[in-house]
Amino acid sequence: MSNANLLGAMSNANLLAETIETLTQNGRVEAEVLWVGNEQYRCSWEAFSEVAKQENYDDGYGGTEIPTDLLVVGKDFWMERHEYDGSEWWEYKEQPKMPEQEFKPTTFLSKNGDSLTEVIKRKG
After folding, report:
1. Is 46 a member of any domain?
2. Does residue 40 lie within any of the structural domains?
């Protein structure tokens, strides 16, 4: 890592390139995107792309520049914005597949951060 990066130099990102890279890393393509927006407003992928290709921003630490409620939504996946201390990125999510095995809940309280599977087996 260069001294410039250690000192918090600007880290440039292009919103469209970053979005396509995240799609590609997760085996998705632009044609699978149904809409882009948030819980109140949406636009087409094409409209998003036209603007996002011109949107260069500092994705390093500092203030967030891309709205944190921005979503890219497909049939069975979505990408949502995440940030930590101003560093921002897309986080890819998929609709979980319904498990074959059903259970009858007796508690959802865990001990020391147990997973649901551990809670079910413990109460079994």
Report:
1. yes
2. yes
